[in-house]
Amino acid sequence: MNTLLLDHLRSVFTTSAVSELARSVGENAAPTQKAVDGLLPAVTAGVINRAQTNEGAAMLYRLLTNTPFATDPSLGVLVDADTHRQKAAQSGNELLGQLFADRPQRLAAATAEYSGVSVGSATTLTGLVMSILMGFLHKQITTRNLSEPQLAALLRDESNTTRAAVPAALAGLLGWFLGTGMSRPVTPIRPEAVTPTTDDRAGGTPWWRWLLYILIPLLLLFLLLRACNRDKTETTTTTTEQSSGTTVVTDTVASDLDGNEMATAQGDSTGSSANAAESSGPEVRVGVDLPGGRKLNVAENSFNYTLATFLATKGGKLPKIFTFDNLTFETNSAQITAKARPNVDDLMQIMQSYPTLKIRIEGNTDSTGDDAINDPLSGERAQAVKQALVKGGINADRITTRERGDTKPVDTNATEEGREKNRRIDVIVTNV
After folding, report:
1. For the domain that residue 312 is a member of, what is the CATH number?
2. Which residues are 400's β-sheet partners?
3. 5: closest CA among 228, 13, 342, 120?
4. 0.85 exceeded by the pTM?
5. Which is nearest to 383 in space by CA: 425, 416, 326, 428?
6. Cis peptide leading into 206, omega within 30 of 0?
7. Where does the OmpA-like domain start and stop, copy by copy (predicted)?
8. Are residues 32 and 148 in the same domain?
9. Is residue 227 part of a domain?
10. From residue 52, how far is each of 55, 122, 168 by CA, in Å?
């Protein structure tokens, strides 16, 4: 069955248009097409679901009548012009955030899991679909002079057909958004389900419960011993540093006056290397709340964790420098590794949550090798991080880059460990 809303969206997101859109966001055509095919009915069904209550219908109508929508552009314009695409994606995601204050980024995460595109690309695609959908609804209100009840009736008529068009695999992730009451968590972390045997069902305590009774105390004991050992290690390290008189630079404040002044700051530890994190034991991940209802799940004391914490405290001294300790590149290349992309996506989420945040990305090298090769590579890597953020919908004007070469070492270049620390990407917060 045809629907007014889906038919319009499909007429905009044609196969050729989506192929060009995939190129502009740095994704392959097939997963991008899959993402768009899922997002068109999913976003539409989500908006319809939100308008099923009086409060939701009133909020949607208010957004559609009070938001200054531009003339509905073709997708080709959005693909060819980075600025238009970024503004449209940002506007769409902001509108989505106002309708769904309870973590609208879950939609992009579910789309990324379903289709295979990155979270950053999924966020851009989600914003574009939402922007064009809302622009079309605004046009319906203005040209047909629809009242709030008439808009709600129009949406209600398309509810079942639109919801049925959502791919089953994606719908299973979006029950909270579609109003189906069923939603499988994205990338769940849970033990495998155990099918009970005939003896289990016969009565008494199943064998697997006895196993849990044994494993849970052992796990608690392990965590307690690990915490004690960590405290002991930190105390020993501090004592050794104090007795030797060595100053360890863990976080710095950079001056924007000449780009060279660095002063030791108190309290943070943002310069730890990825290898050091791996050697300390299993990675501990924590939830970090961001403005607008967003929430990150990041490694404790990692770059994104420390950056988000700094921004949340407010009033910190600027400019402020953080070392991107969990960012890696392909060997002798400026291409970000697949393993590191989620960390860049987390930075993108932080920048979306703080719309006035501006940063400078600096590439650094050690003193070995040919400067004619190393220095440009450090600048290219800084530019690669910027481009990844821009493709995710961040305005390019909020990001600058700088090639540092080996002029800003944080450790000695006489050892491999020191050289590894000097080969890094720094992110300097210049405005909040």
Report:
1. 3.30.1330.60
2. 360
3. 13
4. no
5. 425
6. no
7. 316-432
8. yes
9. no
10. 9, 26, 22
Domains identified in the chain, total number: 2
State residue 363 phi and psi, 5-degree precision: -95, 135
Task: Return the pLDDT at 173.
Answer: 78
Cα dihedral 372→377→380→382 (10° resolution): -120
What's the number of CA atoms in the CB half-sphere (13 Å) around residue 149? 0
Name the strands in the sheet holding 424-431, side by side, starting at the edge strand that comes first in the sequence.
Answer: 262-264, 252-254, 320-323, 424-431, 358-364, 399-405
3-state secondary structure of 7: helix
Last residue of a domain, one of 178, 199, 225: 178
CA atoms within 13 Å, Cβ hemisphere of 173: 22
Choose between 311 and 295: higher pLDDT: 311
Domain finish residue from 178, 197, 212: 178
Specify the DSSP element, H or E, that contains 226: helix 207-244
- Whether residues 405 and 279 share a domain: the answer is yes
Q: What is the pLDDT of residue 348?
A: 92
Three-state secondary structure call for residue 362: strand
Average pLDDT, stretch 237-243?
A: 40
> What is the domain extent for residue 267?
246-431
